[in-house]
Structures
1.
Amino acid sequence: MDFLNNIAEKWQKKWEEAKVYEANPDPKKPKFFTTVAFPYPNSPWHIGHGRTYVTGDVLARFKRMRGYNVLFPMGFHYTGTPIMAMADAIAKGDKELIDTFKEIYEIPADIIPRMSDPLYMANYFKEDIKRSMKEIGLGIDWRREFTTIDPEFSSFVTWQFHKLQSKGYIVKDTHPVGWCPIHHIPVGMHDTKGDVEPEIGEFVLIYFKSDKGIFPAATLRPETVFGATGLWINPNENYVIANVLGNRMILSERAAFKLSFQIDNIEIIEKIKGSKLVGTKAENPITGKFVEVNGAEFVDVNFGTGVVMSVPAHAPFDYYYAKKMGKNVEVIPVINVEGLGNTLAKDVVEKNNPKNNEDLEKLTEYVYRTEYNKGVMRSDLEVLVKEEFKEDLRKLSGLQVPKAREMITNFILNNGLGRKIFEIMNRPVYCRCGTEIVVKILKDQWFLDYSRTDWKELARKLLSRLIIIPSEIRKDFEFTIGWLEKRACARTRGLGTPLPWDKKWIIESLSDSTIYMAYYTISHKIRQYKLTFSQLTLEFWDYVLLGLGNPEEISEKTGIPINILKELRDEFLYWYPLDMRHSGRDLVPNHLTFFIFNHAAIFPENLWPKGIAVNGLVLYEGKKMSKSLRNIIPLRKGLRMYGVDIMRIALSSTADMGSDVNFSESLVRTIGENIRKIYELFKNLDNYKDTTYAFPEKWLISRTYEILDKVTKSMESLELRNAVNEALFIFSSDLDEYFNMVAAENRNANGNVLKEVLTIWLKMITPFAPHLAEEIWHEILYQDTFIVNESWPEVEKSKVDELILLEYKYMKKIIEDIRSILNIYRGTPKVIKLYSLNDSRYVELLRDAIKANGQMKVFMDSHKPRNKEEARLLQRIFNESLEIDDDMKKLVMNYNINEINILKQLSLYMRKKLGVDIQINEFSEEIKKLYNKEALPLRPAIIIE
């Protein structure tokens, strides 16, 4: 590890001195512009952060070797509340956070108190993260670095928001949002602990009237109200009687607090224990039937209103607990599912006998999903309805559930029988300050109106053109574009850019981070020419990014020389559009989809981004990293512990892109052992003097180019796991195989061949382990260029001897057949005799059987057996044609093979692999009679003595 880290430091310095990663426009080269989400500097990085960034770096390095002029820049995201919240926690003396900083991240004790200043914290962690990025070997053009509170960047965000507003995409409206009750600000994903996006769902309150007041039952399934036979409340919790919009309502104390953010002037009249409400009679407003209020501990008073309808026919919890209480359970069917009846909840409880709430939740999910997708309302529904509503509600009979839900909701709202409220569906979600988030109906708030149909269509058009890696994520983007609605785009608290036309608001973090990739293209030029905030006007950005306006007039107005304006415009046009955007999978429902929307809104189609790549998380020894498990490994510490290039391989390429990486000690060891083995082979290259060029050499060169072909294709599609599996693990295994082959021939390895294949390997591994590759390239191969700037090796088809590869696979198949026999052989084998057919007629028969493509009649008709023995032979050959794999079919169809010659050529190697003497002979009738054995093409008779 010391060696790996020392060479990493050495080559990072040399790359920096040579400005290897500083990318400038070059019209002679195709460009490749890639970015990774810029980080929040509100804590140090742990190993989980490294995956997305190394993945992006691996692709950038590969593209550079493929001849592209690559731009890979980086900035830092200061905007919003994450940094403010962390600084507040330090100021309040948050013991858990301070202990984490001190014990896990090893931050000096005298530094931590100073982090109560948000800017000090941001700058401290920015530098720490930057060091992490450099130490893990990211090839970043640091000239383009910026933060989102730089005045120059703020001018860019101001321009972006003017553009969106001019197109009607920013509106002032009233809308439900996630809300922090302490700081009184809207809360999105990056404002929450654990970066959880608050999911807002819509409930219908149905008013059940009683002598004590209205019980507002909250439900997601108002269509089941016809079958409500009771109400549930939690007898152990606190409830209130409150004045809500002039009505006396009974709901949980917590619900009253939460609803105060959605309904104005809620007044608490009386507090009451839930147990005091049990037994109260309340009227079902739709059926007119009086039902009883029952107590149940499963009622969550923090969700909805703390008052729940009991519908035993269609809610497993209701049927189970009503029965458990010993009540005479009244089951009123409302929804029928073909083949499953009309009391699905009752039936699944009776059938499955649930033991606990977890079992009931699974049954509930099944019932709700099944009834929504396949259910229809009962045909005589009006028999359950109040006389005065029969005419209006008769039309619900026989309707499918989704339509019935919509109609009954509208009926309840229009007739004053209830109202809608909003709830955090994935609760509890906590603001970074530690307060549980509620839903607030926000009035006069600025929103990005992602609900607009025309904008959604633009976003879908852009998505249809994007490369999405992995491809299965495309459906998640389609789903997000569909459900996305208005999103609050400004806060009254936090760092960032003021909203241009209403400066008491600050543009929030997921709204100023959607098209910032465009800023990278000229950020270094803004710094180089010392352009000021006042010069970066709306007209400046219009010209540079959209080509609008007269450059002479803009130059005169801003004082920026016209040649500089044109230089900036040209640089932007050289790099844009963005070729690949890397991020974590958790950002698909927000940032990455906003990235699509905003690019579609602002830029012409020829400047729309081309690709998005997302990856899963990093687990540690199979578990999610968390403070409570004390299993967080700071990235910089991990690099010291395990070695830079080993960490790069482990984080980027030991799982498919969409899956989680399970980082473990055993994984690190496996990678390290393979890397060390090949490194040692490089060091000992001069010891291999043999120049024999026989089957082993031909096979190794063919295999290497075959691996190169697979790795190249995998890298192009960012299938990094496949690439490393081939380039590291399979190649390492092939080297072992080669050394065994030459040992079987009692000779040394061919040094020239080894150097050729190892040099190809070195270039293949360079994007993953650039430091080790550079060290070998210079110190062992004595090259004076940088390998990171070398060309990717070309797949020379002429170097791939297909026949050699197929003959090897044939030999492996024979070895497997022998081993399967040895597994059941009793005794110690002295010799293995292989009797192979040496008659081209049998090969021709097998070719014809393969050509028959599984149609036995076609094969038999073309050969017309003269007797039963011939028919049996043809049957066996036809059956073999169905069993052999594609490689063996290729061997038979493409080459005139002589099996005896192949086996004799490889018999020494077979003897070494099996540890038994091997004899190769021709099959004959005498052998058939002697051993009572058959031989077929590619299937010699195997005799073990």
2.
Amino acid sequence: MPSMSIATSAVVASAAVLISPALVPHDPAERRAPAAPAAATRHAAFAKAAGEFGVPVSVLLGVSYLHSRWDSHAGLPSTSGGYGPMHLIDLPAARRDTALPYSLGNHHDDDREDPRGDPSRPMPRHRHQPPKHSPAAPRTLMRAAELTGIAPERLRRDPDANIRGGAALLADHQRALGGHKSANPADWYDAVAAYGGDPAGSTGFADEVFGTIQAGAARTTDDGFALRLGAHPALGAHPTLGADRDRSPRRYRLHRNPGPDRQRPKWGKKRRGGHGRHDRPARRDHRRRAECPESLACEWMPAAYARTGRKSYGNHDRLHEDRKIDYIVIHDTEGSFRGVPSMVNNPRYVSWHYTIRSEDGHVAQHVRTGDIAWHAGNWDINSRSIGIEHEGYLARGGTWYTEAMYRASAKLVRHLADEHDIPLDRAHIIGHDNVPGITPDRVRGMHVDPGPYWDWARFFALLDAPFTATGEEDATSVIIRPDFEHHQAQYTGCTRKQPARHCKRQGSASVWLHTEPSHHSPLVKDIGKHGGGASTHSVYDHAGRASTGQRYAVADRQGDWTAIWYLNQKAWFHNPASSPTALPADGPLVTPRAGLDSVKVYGRAYPEADAYPGGIRPEKLVPLQYTLRPGRRYTLGLTIRSAYTRAKSVDPREHVIIRGRLRYHQIQLGHRVMFVKADDVEIIDR
């Protein structure tokens, strides 16, 4: 067959959908998608808009996929205020539609959790004060309305109109950049980068768009339309997309610097007997580049590091030696990316390692991965983790995370996991909601982000580590895995003024856990979360639910129901063979050692008292309010040697890492992971 040009192949591949929708492949995870009444209709909207404004249909489809995966989301905005398949942004409307504050604050402002999580040096409460003048929020939807004459309300609610508005916006960017209406997708790179948003980050967005066009994509949308973008393997060979390309947006690309960035700082000598400005460590060169994979556009946005008092400093701990990193913790910001610069630049505030912007997947790094950020509310976890904040909200009116952000996060996490030898599983890649409380009184206030609307299955698929069955049907454990898009659990609490009101139904990564194999039975209880009270269906209450990717020991099976061991209870979830919500799995389990009536559970894996050197007060091994009882089994995630990082000085040379003889097993006891002493349990290797 004669070779075709990129432009011609785009039209042919797109036309194939109009001619034969039956040839569209379907993702197995979407096996219960509703049949579209006219599968070609949505694609016709893309083709018509592309023709009207002179945009290659492959470019229009690629841009839409990176924002919304072609979904309409029932007219609800994304976490950054974008509407419809083309993610046209209108923040004022998003505030009205969802009661979203779109604030410049952060979830650490709620005062329920000490982000540093170290009782030996409690962190003073400090509420972030947003700057008086912040960057203006983009309003691309209003620009699309000007270009097309379509009413803003229709652009928000009508997917076909939204697609037309997006095509007009792309053509407008192409004109503004001096481009022409080329049929060659490669000629639209700069316009796609501009569509993504800020030029410092959007080359990454454009690269992902063109990577999607090159590889192709196919899926059924949330409103039942089968769409397909044919693969264009020749696209990557086009000269305007090659390695020698030196046009304006790509000059912003920042990659990891393998030289000075990996060197340890040289600290100056202390002045004798003083605490003046000359005692502080020499300031590192913050012009360094971000620690990111080369395929990801990142910027270095350094967090503050300064004295805040005679014996206090912030907003993170720098280390003079390597640390072992066991976890990557996924957060959501509960605020806008626009507020991040002022937060990380405040030495009295908290810190985290990276922030990812919703609009285009732009990544900003704030704390070097070898240093300790204050983000998880548990000093033990902080000292062994990297924290990544994602622009978004746990649940405010049903907003959604963009594909661009999922992809950027997955690239970053995969890179960090490779760098630090972190296994890609849910024992190591955890949410803030999986971090244990440090003491019984701290359990209730631990944060619960990213919550049930974070698509863990999608995220791990992008990590190239999808959740799959690893055991037979009668396996001794299961991995929670509902079909996110079609598992629409009913929650309450998305509207703060009406907490009992039902949230709008949308995909969920969690399953409800009942006391009996019945939807009408109560949810299981969590004494740490509610004392003796009942668990609720609030989106902010994880006490009676399990999340995608978590592995639990099987306690029983009955018909369409499976029971797992969860906080010493049989917790039942609906798991019918026709529509399973879990996968059979093998793997090690733990149970109390013979002769023990109960086993203490801990939120930190700290050393025994005699491991601490003279002059350093040992950290108390405070058990949580939970225990392990005989006959119960729990999954084993990892085994670690006890350690405590003592960091109480602005000078990293004074930090001490204390390692003990005690070994701990991390187990999946409830929704959160916890620790038991290895000597108190026996391992059942199944």
3.
Amino acid sequence: MRFSTRTVPDEPNAIAVAEGIALRAGVSLRKLNDSNPTHHGLGPKMLGHGYDADPRGPRDAREALASFLSARGRHVGENRALPGARSHRGTAVSGGMTEASAPEVSPERIYVLSSTSQAYSWLMKLLCDAGDAVLVPKPGYPLIESIARLECVDALSYPLHYDGSWTIDTAAIREALRRDTQGHIRALVLINPNNPTASYVGAHERDTILSLCKEYDVALIADEVFFDYAFDDDSDRPGHEGEGSATRRESSTVAGEGTQHRRFAGESSVLTFALDGFSKLLAAPHAKVGWIQVSGPEDEVRQALRRLDAIADDYLPMSSIIADAIPALIALADTQLAHVRSRVSTNLAVLRRLLDQDENGLVSLLRAEGGWNVLLRFPAVIDENELVLGLIHDHGVSAQPGYFFDMESNGYLALSLLPEGEEFERNVRDVLAEVQTLIDR
């Protein structure tokens, strides 16, 4: 694995070597240059204990996260999907790895930081020099491209196609890697499930992507913040469509029959950086807690950790005030997941009912497997900007059209499943009304 030239750690000098030997021997050295005020009784009492700058984040917080992630991985047979959740061909959906036993997560393989956005930035510093590139999904959330620009890294898109369900164009990924004879593509980004397409990575797609990453020596960045929010099977529900469907229904024919959704966290075959955080897990973006879980071949992991330590040390670890709350926040995970799943499940059912009851049948729901957002399709004769501007003018509500996410054609609108019931139903009815208004003109 080739890492960026900006993250080559300095070899330790004789003093650093001696300090390391003393530390491993259990000797606590006094430091003549110690300018940490919390070591000298000068920190505000209300902030509690002293501050020790561990680049990976406070040890107690990482141990709590490692314990939580290990327990989650052991729930092999537990159905973590929304009520009635099924996979592509009707098998139960699992929130963990499908192996007989998932490996324990080591706190030494976790970096705690403020957000997955920060994680993307650090990983681009780790893997890419200026002018290098990462592969990102299209359609997809535009944040990654924005961060890549700030890091002087090119974001090259690989397509997802919709034909009754979403599939990753692995042939396009292979071709992009094959044509990159200079080795500028340093990482492949997967969003599992993707946003806003709400599609998980299928079993065959997973195997192919891992094989390509290994063949072309490319790291994998797996953003799995929405993983725990799987929807129920929509193959026989009204208000849905496959490509060209006249009935607004679709079959659930998808590659990977009999398989389960799987996390990439803990993947051992290629260097993998799995991203997650409390923003989605606890529905708490204001908690400002995210993490990177590093896994893969031992030698590559060792090199990655050493270089990530240098990056994290320069930016300093997250606030100990927040870190101290992590164990208590983790204890809320099951309750918060259930709360958000209930809201999303209820609103998804309401959406399907409203689409089915709409006698005009102008708006349909693209097949969605998990997350907080879904995509609506409306007649392409209506310009997306015209629809959103109409919603703003006539109904006092704004929206994000498909082109915000690089959809391949006109006629799409993203819809959040999070609003409270009355507001959500009003949002859907406003879309239906505005589409009808524009068609009638």
4.
Amino acid sequence: MTTTLGGTPRTGRLPAILAKLHGRTAAGVPRWAVWAAYATTLTPLPSGIWRIAAFIFGAPLLEYGGAPPPGHGPVLVDGEWWYIVTLSVVSEAVAFLTVGLVAQWGEVWPRWIPGLGGRRVPVLAAVVPAGVGAAVLLVFPYALVMFAFGRMINGSPEGLIVHGWQAVAFWVTYAPLAAWGPLLGLLTVHYFRRRRLQHVAPMSSRHGVV
């Protein structure tokens, strides 16, 4: 089966699966942007699995109860099982929207959307929420630095504790979150520039500019 990846014909099972899952790549999108978008969708996945395993299934990924010892490792916030599941699912769903910055459905509303299906997506309708989201997500690098010093985001030393091999598991699963904001910001800028060029090109042609 032949599909396109970043505008380049590709033959193989993996590109076909990705194209079916994420939708067709928009015209003019380079390969690096496509893979960056795919990578962005995966940034919250490891931490979501960690939360579900630790808080819902009781996996020994953190210390339960007791006062934090001096110099303890990263601290986290506990929550009810429904909150953990909802947070993980919503995080992944929001991350998946990044694909719209490189896919056709990010330029033309899908036909199943009432009143909008088949119409062009206004550039700002995608750029503004994506840009705001990228800025907000920059809290993760800051939060991870605070966690490294055994603190919550607000500087409080209270919370759940991880140390030793648990700290390794924590950083392996939570470190990708630090890349979410920067990747989204990069793709948002690329989307804006690409859509603007698509708008300028027809205008230049009509005015005889070559």
